[in-house]
Amino acid sequence: MSSLTVAQPLPAEWRDFLALTKPRVMTLVVFTGLCGMLAAPVHIHPVIGFTAILCIALGAGACGALNMWYEADLDAQMKRTARRPLPAGRMDRQAALHFGVGLGVFSVLLMGLAVNLLSAAILAASILFYVVIYTVWLKRRTPQNIVIGGAAGAFPALIGWAAACGRLDLLPVLMFFMVFLWTPPHFWALALFVETDYAAAGVPMMPVVAGARTTRIQVFAYALPMAVVAVLPWGLKLTGAIYGLTALILSLVFVGLAVQVGLSKQGDQALMKPERRLFRFSILYLFVLFGALVADRMLLV
Question: Model's pTM, two decimal places?
Fold first, then answer.
C-alpha cells in the first residue's frame, strides 16, 4: 500500500514572523526616521514621538513581509535568501500576505490618528511605492529597479520630520535625496559580489544585465552627486560645522572607495575586495552622517 504525502508548511514561530519584517533593513529605516524627527526644529512629545517611530517600524515590517510574500519564488533560487521562512517551507504564503497587509494598514491608521495626517500619508505612499512600484513593477523588469525603488527607503526622514512639524522643509528633502542617491552604489556594490545569485533567479540587476564594468562605473557616477547633496546642508547654512566636516570627510572616503570599485578590473574576482569594502562602509556612512546631522541640529537649537 503506497501513500503520498503532500508537503505542508511547518507551523510558523514568532521568529519567522520577525524574519518577515527584515529586521536589519528595519533598523536603518527606523534610524533615518528618528533622525528626521530629532533634526526637526520643534520638540515632539515623547509619547507621540515613540508612536511615530513605532509606526515607521511597522510600516517597514509590512514592506519586508509583502516583499517576501511576492518574491518567494526568487528567494528560493538564491543562496542568501533560500532559508527565509517562505522558501524554507516554515510558513504559508497566505499567512505572510495577511501579516504584511495587517501591519501596513495598522501602521498608517495609527500614524494618522495618533500623530498627524501628513506623516500618515507619506508613510502610506512609502509602503505602496516599495510594494507596488519597486517589488511588483520594477524589480523583475529593469536594471534601474534600485535607482527608482531607492525612493522607498528615502521616505523615513520625511516621515519623521513631518511627524514632528506637521510640514516639510528643505532639510528633510535633502535628507531624502541623500538616501536616494546613496542607494544605488550601496546595493550595486552588494550585487557585484552576489551577481551569480541574481543571475540564477533571473533578476535584472545591473551587473547581470549590463555587466560588472558598467556597474562599477555607475557606482562611481552616483557617489559623486550623493557626496554633493550630503555636503549641501552645510553649504546652505542649514547645519553647522560638526555636520559639515563630518559629511565632507565621510563623503571623500566614500568617493575614494567608489573610485577603487570603478578602477577594478572586470576579471578580478579576488574576494571582490573593493566592492565589499564599499558596501560595508556605505552602511557606516549613512549611520554616522545622519547621527552627525542630529547632533549638529541639537546644538544649534
Answer: 0.88
